[in-house]
UniProtKB/TrEMBL annotation:
It comes from Bellilinea caldifistulae. Residues 27-47 are annotated as: Disordered. PANTHER family: BLL4482 PROTEIN (PTHR35008:SF4), BLL4482 PROTEIN-RELATED (PTHR35008). PROSITE patterns: CYTC, PROKAR_LIPOPROTEIN. Keywords: Electron transport, Heme, Iron, Metal-binding, Signal, Transport. Residues 1-20 form the signal peptide. Pfam families: Cytochrom_C (PF00034). It comes from the Bacteria. One of its GO terms (molecular function) is iron ion binding. This is Cytochrome c domain-containing protein. InterPro entries: Cyt_c-like_dom (IPR009056), Cyt_c-like_dom_sf (IPR036909), Cyt_C_IC (IPR008168), Cytochrome_c-type_DH (IPR051459). Residues 50-140 form the Cytochrome c domain.
């Protein structure tokens, strides 16, 4: 019994150290989205579902080469990108209109995204960005 107790104590202490090392260290998880900047916060899509057809055309021209035809992040240009394009099917289910508009308008060059997604503000009008938002929300 005297030899078993120290062995149990060592196993317990090592297990505790391993769990502490692997624990949630408070860093931002990759599934967490950063806060939407004030200039975009609270924006809601003013367009109806009929805008999805126009959004599809824009998406196919400007987005599908990276995000893929169904938003899976598997477009032909995606293979050469690091980080990989977002899987839109996962994003649109949890993101609000303001987040989607912001990400399309500003692109991905800022932290924490650091991606090569180009900003569409100045290329697309607000209405066209909302059309794309309407279309990608059909991916859910």
């Amino acid at each position: 019994m005297k030899k078993v107790f120290p062995m149990i104590l060592i196993v317990f202490v090592l297990s505790a150290l391993v769990l502490a090392a692997c624990g949630g260290g408070g860093g931002q998880s990759t599934s967490e989205k950063p806060a939407v900047p004030a200039e975009y916060a609270g924006k809601t899509n003013p367009l109806g579902s009929d805008a999805a057809a126009a959004g599809k055309t824009i998406y196919e021209e400007r987005c599908a080469s990276c995000h893929g035809p169904s938003g899976a992040g598997d477009g032909p240009a995606a293979a050469g990108l690091d980080p990989k394009p977002a899987h839109l099917n996962e994003v649109v289910g949890t993101a609000g209109d303001d987040y989607l508009f912001w990400r399309i308008a500003e692109g991905g060059s800022m932290a924490p995204f650091n991606s090569s997604m180009p900003a569409q503000k100045g290329i697309l009008t607000d209405e066209q960005i909302w059309q794309v938002v309407t279309y990608i929300k059909t991916f859910k």
